Amino acid sequence: MEVIRIPKKKWYNPVRKTGWRKTQSASTRRRKLLNATDKNLSLRERYVQAGRMINALANVTKDRETEIKARQDAKYFFDKVR
């Protein structure tokens, strides 16, 4: 009997590619996130958008290191809004 393998579907498809990598420095990661936001928004709205983008990654990743760094970056952007 032959086993049929069904490829896993990845359900998390980010809208924008940011170039964010966990191996980069914090300043580089945050700069890339901010550059990936909509330039027509105010700076405050861009901070919120960047925080939400990286928070979405933190919510779905299974890699602990990625989750920690993504949450730190999200907190950075949300703190800037306050």
Question: Which structural traits does this protein have?
Answer:
82 residues, mainly alpha, 0% strand
Global mean pLDDT: 93
Uncertain runs are none
Q: Could you tell me the strand content as a percent range?
A: under 5%
Taking the alpha carbons of the first and last residues, their distance comes to 61 Å
Structural class: mainly alpha
Q: How many helices does DSSP assign? A: 3
Helix content: 55-70%
Largest sheet report? none
User: Using DSSP, what is the number of strands?
Assistant: 0
Q: What is the chains' assembly state? A: single chain
Topology pattern, helix = H, strand = E: HHH
Radius of gyration using CA atoms only:
16 Å
- Globally, the shape reads elongated
Provide an overview of this structure.
The protein has helices at residues 26-35, 43-60, 64-81. The longest helix has 18 residues, at 43-60. By secondary structure, it is mainly alpha-helical. Helix 2 runs antiparallel to helix 3. The relative contact order is 0.18. The protein has a domain at 26-81. The chain contains three helices and no strands.
Question: What order do the helices and strands come in, and which of them pair?
Answer:
Blueprint: H1 26-35, H2 43-60, H3 64-81
Helix pairs in contact: 2-3
Question: Gist?
Answer:
The protein has 82 residues and is an all-alpha fold. The chain has 3 helices and no strands.
